[in-house]
Automatic annotation (TrEMBL):
Pfam family, one: DUF3243
Stored Gene3D superfamilies: Protein of unknown function DUF3243 (1.10.760.20)
Protein name in the entry: DUF3243 domain-containing protein
Amino acid sequence: MSSVLENFDSWKKFLGERVQQAKKVGLSEETISKLAYEIGSFLDEKVSPQNEQEHAIKELWDVGDEQDKKTIARLMVKLAEQKG
């Protein structure tokens, strides 16, 4: 997975493809956003940012409360949908 994270455009494309797959199997937007939040939490704890964009997102994630993090996750899903 680290190779996907090295390039932010690759990460957005990868995430967009996963969002489309989730929609095809019938997951709701709310469920997808919850999954994105869980993935964000995992990445925050286990994976070091690989580029400037990921560093910026991590800084925002680290200063945000739970609601802020859920918003970041929803926005990442929206961004991925546009780019996927």
